[in-house]
Automatic annotation (TrEMBL):
<dbReference type="InterPro" id="IPR055377">
    <property type="entry name" value="GH3_M"/>
</dbReference>
<feature type="domain" description="GH3 C-terminal">
    <location>
        <begin position="462"/>
        <end position="579"/>
    </location>
</feature>
<dbReference type="Pfam" id="PF03321">
    <property type="entry name" value="GH3"/>
</dbReference>
<protein>
    <recommendedName>
        <fullName>Indole-3-acetic acid-amido synthetase GH3.6</fullName>
    </recommendedName>
</protein>
<comment type="similarity">
    <text>Belongs to the IAA-amido conjugating enzyme family.</text>
</comment>
<dbReference type="InterPro" id="IPR004993">
    <property type="entry name" value="GH3"/>
</dbReference>
<keyword id="KW-0436">Ligase</keyword>
<dbReference type="Pfam" id="PF23571">
    <property type="entry name" value="GH3_M"/>
</dbReference>
<dbReference type="Pfam" id="PF23572">
    <property type="entry name" value="GH3_C"/>
</dbReference>
<dbReference type="InterPro" id="IPR055378">
    <property type="entry name" value="GH3_C"/>
</dbReference>
<feature type="domain" description="GH3 middle">
    <location>
        <begin position="360"/>
        <end position="446"/>
    </location>
</feature>
Amino acid sequence: MPEAPKTSRKANDFIVAEENKKALQFIEEVTTKADEVQKRVLAEILSRNADVEYLQRHGLNGYTDRETFKKVMPVITYEDIQPDIIRIANGDKSPIFCSQPISEFLTSSGTSGGERKLMPTTEEELGRRSLLYSLLMPVMSQFVPDLEKGKAMYFLFIKSEAKTPGGLLARPVLTSYYKSPHFKNRRPDPYTNYTSPNEAILCPDSYQSMYSQMLCGLCQNAQVLRVGAVFASGFIRAIRFLEKHWPLLCEDIRTGTINTDLITDPSVREAVMKILKPDPELADFIEAECSKKSWQGIITRLWPNTKYVDVIVTGTMSQYIPTLDYYSNGLPLVCTMYASSECYFGVNLNPLCKPEDVSYTLIPTMCYFEFLPILRNNGAMDSISTPKSLSEKEQQKLVDLVDVKIGQEYELVVTTYAGLYRYRVGDVLRVAGFKNNAPQFNFICRKNVVLSIDSDKTDEVELQNGMKNAVGHLMPFDAHVTEYTSYADTTTIPGHYVLFWEINVNGTTPIPPSVFEDCCLAVEESLNSVYRQGRASDKSIGPLEIRIVEIGTFDKLMDYAISLGASINQYKTPRCVKFAPIIELLNSRVMSNYFSPKCPKWVPGHKQWNNMN
């Protein structure tokens, strides 16, 4: 029987070029007709969901025009719809938000009452996410040619999932995507040619997953043209893993066998063995590089054809830029897309820009966008004023996608196909410019977030609650905390939270170190489930540390702030510090430090579901 004709390299190049052209044309069209597309998207969402309970409850009565929608539907936060979310989680299958069945919940890294927020989603949304992914490489190929001729070494992982009492899966958005047919059964595409086999990505054991992905990446080092992970913190963890385990990895490459004591998952072993071949020369090369005293530029040394590092370095992830520059010898750090559990939003059309200049063009077909203008309190960078619930007058201030003003900051509000209506995402964005008629935004921060190392987001209220639970351990010694502040220390891998405490001791009995360690653990036990999962399961966050500072340290801190122009009448101790000179001042006055002795308790799912089991 004759063989089917093989597709030539030339034909493949033509297909890739045509696909790229179509994707770029799509971006051109939807950004040019941004307002028209937005009007259509809103009408489509409202008409297909006209009979759902939530829209009926607010009296929309089948109207699909913008004016009626804005007049009738309130701007909301998660807490406003939480009772309805709980109904769906408990098994209510009636169309509450969406005419299509809710297929699962996507668990947000944002929390409510210490538990992950649950975002309802539908099967159709996977297609919409895939569309946004399909735009990334056509954009990138304009700046870095021939990426289709090599591989991507991306460290991708799944996280634990749980079932709601009603039987719906609840899991992070990327876990949902990687486990979907859209990812697992993706058609052969030179842009999704990863060094990691699917079995390694989908392995639930994070150690086995990391080891096998790193092993496959090293085996194919000459073919690697780009490297990355979702967050900067995740990629740095992978490099740190290599620092610890390169002797074992070299041994596997030298012999062409995989260590069965380390990799116990048979499907992972089988997938890796298809890639792994005995290569003593490569093992010697990796060993020589990893044995050197300095690891500066280790990425370009081990993967010499790498063109860029694809990771998120905006927002709190910007704290990892110096470390990435060190390991990569200053390779471009590329942020390709802007997305959340609620919805995928936009792409970076200038991916080789500097991290501080990253702006995302919102794609008007993804959802219906609105923007709540932000007012900063006295121009203070850490003080953003957006009331929890909005008056009718404040709701009228929301502006449409095409009406935002350059330089102005806004909170993002979305209406999605999966059934969120005028939902406040909590992201603060600044308008940087326009692509045709679609705005481009710098990501400024998450509203109210004080501390973050990985995907965790801890706000001031949680931190204060943790403090309250911790200081009880000092009472038997007649001691109390007079002042405190915090910062996210990313000089350690993984990074960890640091609390600076100034304490007043009236008692005569010295406070044993174990008491301060108990204080550390008490704070951790009080923090949200995303933080506790990062500590106990993902190992993406290190033990919390308390540093005891000299009496008078916080007076020095105030003096320093006043010397920089702060008003003595309005000065309040910041509950989180990021400014290097302030951290230096605090560190110079540390008398002792203590770490949490063990991981805080964490189990998958929500507390109330676990109580029902």
